[in-house]
Amino acid sequence: MRRETDKYCEQDCRVLYQIINIFSRRIFEQFKINIHNYPTLPSLAFAIFRSNFLDKVKNGIPLITGEIYNYIKKSYTGGAVDVYKPHGNDVKAYDVNSLYPSQMQSRPMPVGSPTFFQGDIKYYSGSLGPIEELLGFYEVEVTTPENLAYPILQRRVKTTNGGTRTVADLGTWKGVYFSEEIKNAEQYGYTFKILSGYLFKKENIFKDYVDTLYTWKENSDPNSSDYLIAKMLLNSLYGKFGQKPLMETHLILDKEEILKYETDGKYVITNSIELDNGKELLSFFDYSYLQEDPWYSKSKYKNISVPIASAVTAYARIEMSHYKMWCLENDIIIYYSDTDSIYISAYLPDHLVSKKLGQMKLERVFKEACFIAPKVYGGIIENSTKEYVKVKGLKNPVSFEQLITLLHKDATLTFNQEKWQR
Question: Which has the higher per-residue pLDDT, 319 or 415?
């Protein structure tokens, strides 16, 4: 057994080395990048963009930190995921071909240095140019239509347990939104009072990056490693721009040492895990450098730009809102929508469906389906007995028969599984 185990481990290492070696060569041939300097796919995608495509950006990508980061970050709420109707028959499931890359490829992004204005947009001085040629992030008072079956503007609200939840509801509230999402919502009856904002110049900065990788993907066999590499690099870039500006620090400390971090106002503790040896794993942000350099510390901040990440996700929500409103206008039921997919009661017209970047493709048709909560749904595939069930975060398989029981009041399912913590 020892001999066979040693042989297995050795072969496993050899195979893994060969895979990494081929992957490394492929990336270097395409982009002249050494993968060993980048530990994650997003960091590799970011390096490819910066070294091969950034020099074509005329106005520069803004590095946003501090108060401007905190302001614009409020608009960065991710994809729209909603359950509208929990059960249906003959449900069509559509998915957008590379939704985020398609928006990055075709839409202008906020670039250059931000300009702040207070009060209504009419008080903007025009220093960056005509307002119609700019993009912005505005703090606004929102008033929704009184009756709208599928609200399209989302916000984060505090829950009773102290957390936050993203909802798309009706009513009046105050929030920060991307200018193009505001314009889109106005078409469907939303009204806004602009209170303040930051304005940027606009430029299409990702077209060449997306075109290059999408061409690589389309020219590769769907079952090949090239296809998977190109697909993952396409989808891994935008998130790097939305990272927190500071790196989290992790230390294993004695409990007496932790007291210093808990009482010193320079540290913000994010997590503490008690270990079995009298120590704790402490995770925190170190803000001590602010006393020396309140505006910017090159050694501490990462290359991030939350306006870019927020704009990409807002454009994606705008794109999905068009399908929702088309369903509303044509009396088509929407059962469920995810970041880049929609589950509806009828087929989409042919001109909206193709294999092209940014268009819809029919993933599957359910004979019967149920939608319990965001990322918790499933159904029986049409003309078969096969099931498709998705429960985010759960490793153990769940049957559709089990899932559908949760439509009954007070019904529960309990599963136990191991969960690793970072």
Answer: 319
Could you tell me which residues come within 8 angstroms of residue 409 by beta carbon, excluding any fewer than 6 positions away?
A: none
Q: How confident is the prediction for the chain on average, in pLDDT?
A: 90
Digit-coded pLDDT (tens) for 216-256: 999 999 999 889 999 999 999 998 998 887 777 888 988 77
The values of phi and psi at residue 34, to 5°, are -90, 110
- pTM for this entry: 0.87
Q: Is the dihedral of CA 202, 207, 208, 209 positive or negative?
A: positive
Q: What CA–CA distance (Å, rounded) separates 137 from 177?
A: 6
3-state secondary structure 70-90: HHHHCCCCCCCCEECCCEEEE
Q: Kindly state the helix (H) or strand (E) to which residue 249 belongs, with its residue range.
A: strand 249-254
CA gap 125, 110 in Å, rounded: 18
Q: Is it the case that residue 293 has pLDDT exceeding 70?
A: no
Residue 117 near residue 195 (C-beta atoms within 8 A): no
End-to-end CA distance of the chain, in Å? 33
C-alpha closest to that of 109 among 207, 212, 185, 239: 207
Ramachandran sector of residue 386 (left: φ over 0; alpha: ψ -120 to 50; beta: rest): beta
Rounded distance between C-alpha atoms, residue 155 and residue 168, angstroms: 6
- 265 or 214, higher pLDDT: 214
HEC per residue, 38-55: CCCHHHHHHHHHHHHCHH
Q: Which of 310, 326, 339 lies closest to 96, judged by CA?
A: 339
Work out the angle between the directed axes of helices 306-329 and 99-106 (0-180°, nearest 10).
Answer: 110
